[in-house]
Each structure stands twice: as structure tokens, then as C-alpha cells.
Amino acid sequence: MTRKKLTGKQKAAVLFISLGPELSSSIMKQLSDEDIESVSYEIANMDVVDAAVQEEVVAEFLEMFEVQHYLLKGGVQYAKQILEKTLGVNKANEYIRKLTAAAKQHPFSGLRKTDPKYLLNFIENEHPQAIALILSYLDPDQSAAVLGALPQEKQANVAKRIATTDTISPEVVKEVESVLEKKLSTISSEKFSFAGGIQSVVDILNRVDRGTERTIIETLEQEDPELADDIRDRMFVFEDINTLDDVAIRRTLREVDMKDLSKGLKGASETLLNRILQNMSARAGEMLQEEMDFLGPIRLREVEEAQQSIVQVIRRLDEAGEIIISRGGEDEVVV
Fold this sequence. Notes:
- By secondary structure, the protein is mainly α.
- Helix content is 68%, strand content 1%.
- The protein has helices at 8-19, 21-28, 33-44, 51-87, 89-103, 116-123, 128-137, 140-149, 152-164, 170-180, 198-205, 210-223, 225-235, 246-253, 258-264, 270-278, 282-295, 300-319, and strands at residues 167-168, 193-194.
């Protein structure tokens, strides 16, 4: 690709090519499916990228990154003052315009750098639905800190609203955001904005302390048992066994049915299989592998059912205090 006016997606494609496959793949995971598809299309349609074009795109990216840093550090006026001194008035205004326009597409983006303690004071008296909406858009660690600090009678209510929220009208988002962030423009897109859902509340609950998690789940069990089960099933999945320590794995192996284990491991990663074998005697490991070979191909449904049975054993042991499932934001274990 030679020098010419590039679109934003073409510039992104040039940047990904410049960064290489490993780093680019890590960044792409943060993009929406639509953006991944469009940028991948541009990459596929580029044959040779001119070195001068590549240099210009990378330089522009670094400048934009620096502008964003100034915006986050001191706001628009601070960024403008710094950039006018280094890039000139016209260039500074151009970059500020681009980044503030991008900010309009992400509701509550101005709250993402706010300390959770301050944010709690800011929203704790809002209606639970408004709190749920805000937490759905924030970083899960930030949301977990706020949810854990809410009064207990509000925690489960907010968690339930996050889990049961599917689509949000832009008018509703606009109304809530206008109260909380008067300095930010609101969503202009006519499309519905996706927020919340079961996975959203799972991401948050996986980061709160165990006491908060237990309170919320127990309350939801009384109000909506099916929702509580859905949330619980997603909070610890079979591959998460890798996050357990060896003592917990060995304790779990004493409880699980070996037929379930052999079936469950048919759909597991090699890393997890090796971890299980490392915590078994040589003879038991041989028997397990023989059982897996004997089973041959089995239905995915059977694999998932076996895995879920093992996960239920692990959660039961965790609730009984016999093993520990790691939680974000939880006190360290003292031995």
C-alpha cells in the first residue's frame, strides 16, 4: 500500500501488520466482532505496505495515545494546553476532536477511572436499576468493588438487575448518563446498546469477596432459583480447575466419580489433563488414561454433563471450606 488518504480501518490494518501477529491478536481480543471482521478484511486486502505509510500510521497512533493519556490525566483543557505547545493549535484541536468524539460512543467512559469509593458515594442513593446499568458498563473490578460496598439489601437486587438486563434503549442510557456525567455527550446511535446479562454479573461476582457473593446468591435463590443456578454454573467452569492449588485438586479427586472424570477430561485441554495426572499416583493415572481410551468418541453433551458434575463437587467443597476457589479482592490466605 502506497501513500494515499487512508480510512480509519485501513490505518488500523497497517498498525496491526506493523505490530506483528502475536501482539495484534492480543489487541484484537478487545475489539467487537464487527470491528475484527472489518479490520481483518482490510489486512487481507493489503499486499505490500509502503515503509513511509507504515511510519506515518505508527507515528499517528503514538501521538493519539499520548493525547489520550493527557485527557485521562487532566481533562480536555489540560490536554489542549500541552498539545498546543508540542503539536501546534491545529493538530492539537484535531486530535482532541477525534478522541472526544470516540468517547461519545462509550457510555460512562468518564467514570472508568473513578475511584470505586468515590463512585460509591456518587451512585449509592440511585435507583437499583440505574446502579445496575452503570455497573454493567464499567470495568468488572471497579464494579465488583462498588457492588461489594453497597448495603446488603441492595446487593442482590442490583446483581439480579444486571443479570436480567439484555438490551438498553439509548434514551434510557442518555437519561442516566446526563445525570451522572453532564460534561459528556450521549449516545447518538439509533441501535440498542447491549449491557448486563448473566455473564456480566458473573464477571463482577467472580471479583467480589466470598461473603458478598454468598449473600447475593442466597438472596437470588429465594427470589429467582433458576437465575441463581445459571449464575452459579458460570462462576466456576471445568477449565478453572487449573486455578486450584494441588491440595484442592487432590481433595477434589477423592470426591469425584472416576467415570465422570474420564468423560470430562475428554473435552479438556492438555494442560488441565497433565495437571490432573500430576496429582494422581502413577497407577491411578494409568487407569484414568486407559478409561479415557476405552471410552472412544462420546457425545459432547455427555462430556459437558460430566464436567458439570465435577464442578458441582468443587463448589460444594468450597462452600464447606474444605478447598478454596480464588476470588479477586478477597483476603489472602494465611497458613
